[in-house]
């Protein structure tokens, strides 16, 4: 038989309203009443009817998360954290991957609507301002570094400063031929990390050389390895490399080893994202570590506030923390 709030209230000796307040997480319940309700909930095995509750509120109970590639560990890890943060607020998450193409991002964005989800978190790579729906159509939060001039809540780290921090670390080790792997004009993330790379070189009194900046259509391991081989084949090869994500850096580590060179003695390497894999590579990878949990929770908090009533507030731009995680690929 289905257990109702009235059944729980009868067993606990409180009102149905008090049971409802406990079930919905309201703070202002007397401790003794809360204890009795929680014991009654456990004893009866009560489970809230989430579908009915959302129907009464005029909601679906779902959020959408749009990311480029789940095969890239950063996005897989971020998706898991977003799901955890959303569950705390009572939402389930639908995940779409777009491969970072403008056409697929537009198609996915315009397939969303109040009939499907209550709000969406989008991590675009190629969207332009004209691609976004009109403000107010659906609560949106934009994640990541792709710069789009639209009045939408945005959560990201300071990618320019983070990249500059990585390059400054390499320069502090006495490296003077610092290369970069990951240039891709089609990706906003790449443009910001390239800007930080150039800023880091300038701050260290080092000149920029276009031959030391390797392109990368995809930020995958194989691309990082191929780019590293090309850089090491230069007449004056680099003595350090900043890779725009950890997968490129893992590929670069492999290429250096294949050529019989040592990391960091011959080439120091820094990645970006602090994926779990980076701590277990050999040598372990120095990397920029975004606070992914803070990013996920800030994004869910923003979309929650938009959905539950704060629709007219000006768009917010939130920067979450990052740190430089120093490991063996620069420390030795």
TrEMBL record:
GO terms for molecular function: DNA-binding transcription factor activity; transcription cis-regulatory region binding. The keyword RNA-binding does not apply. Keywords: DNA-binding, Transcription, Transcription regulation. It comes from the Bacteria. Signal peptide: none annotated. Residues 3-57 form the HTH lacI-type domain. SMART domains: HTH_LACI. SUPFAM superfamilies: lambda repressor-like DNA-binding domains, Periplasmic binding protein-like I. InterPro entries: HTH_LacI, LacI/GalR-like_sensor, Lambda_DNA-bd_dom_sf, Peripla_BP_I. Transmembrane segments: none annotated. Pfam families: LacI, Peripla_BP_3. This is LacI family transcriptional regulator. It comes from Amycolatopsis iheyensis.
